[in-house]
Hints:
This protein is an alpha+beta fold.
Amino acid sequence: PLACNTAAPDEGNMYLLGHIGSAEIKDRFLKQLISGEARSAFFMTEPAEEGGAGSDPSMMQTTCRKDGNHWVINGRKAFITGADGAKVGIVMAASEEEDSRGGACMFLVDLPDPAIRIVDVPNTIDTSMPGSHATVEIENLRVPADQLLGQPGEGFKYAQVRLSPARLSHCMRWLGACIRAQEIATDYACRREAFKKTLIDHEGVGFMLAQNRIDIKQAELMIYWCASVLDTGDLGSTESSMAKVAVS
Ligand SMILES: Cc1cc2nc3c(=O)[nH]c(=O)nc-3n(C[C@H](O)[C@H](O)[C@H](O)COP(=O)(O)OP(=O)(O)OC[C@H]3O[C@@H](n4cnc5c(N)ncnc54)[C@H](O)[C@@H]3O)c2cc1C
């Protein structure tokens, strides 16, 4: 995925900016992601131990308020994939403004920024994801008003626009990895001999590879099914959740 520029979170972020971004935002932020010159991060989740937003984004504690021609953002975020080393950030915060209170805003930011401090970069086993999944502290981050994505207060809606296709593209990346693993395993089982026959001819090995093929085909069909729902313009929230559980 990294080599094809379809890795998370860049793929989902590109999708979101392609759908919601103004011409100026596309030119300034999206272009560098599409060309692969920059990586991005999506700042939504917050530390659970502080009661912040997780599977329920409406619990968002990070706030944004207007100050002249800028917005000022404060809060803490967790599990922010790729934050360390990203050049583009999409930061989500709950609005404190009268006309958009109860809603969220999304902002495009240039990274690194001294107001976004990386507190911790956990040591995880998924080394294929550069930048790991950081915890960050946002303190008085000032963002020019023209770097607000879309309309104020519409952030939760935009998160939904991003999340369903992003779930599906997770499934597509996993399917690709599984097909490759299956190819490697089958190739080896067809070459390696033990007890005077190739491994594939031992039922214990052949059955496992056969079961894998069945699982892979089921995953593929589920992905096509969910994609066909998204193609109709439907948000596909239920379908993409089902696909993500089944395919993972
Ligand atoms: C590898 C990784 C990368 C990530 N990258 C990012 C990122 O780049 N940016 C970002 O903003 N976030 C990111 N996240 C965070 C991710 O979006 C959250 O982990 C997710 O939203 C769940 O929130 P939570 O961990 O706080 O779990 P919680 O919301 O505390 O949920 C805890 C448990 O409750 C269950 N649960 C929750 N709701 C329901 C429900 N309605 N029905 C049944 N069970 C339920 C869940 O299954 C879970 O087991 C990442 C997470 C991981 C693991």
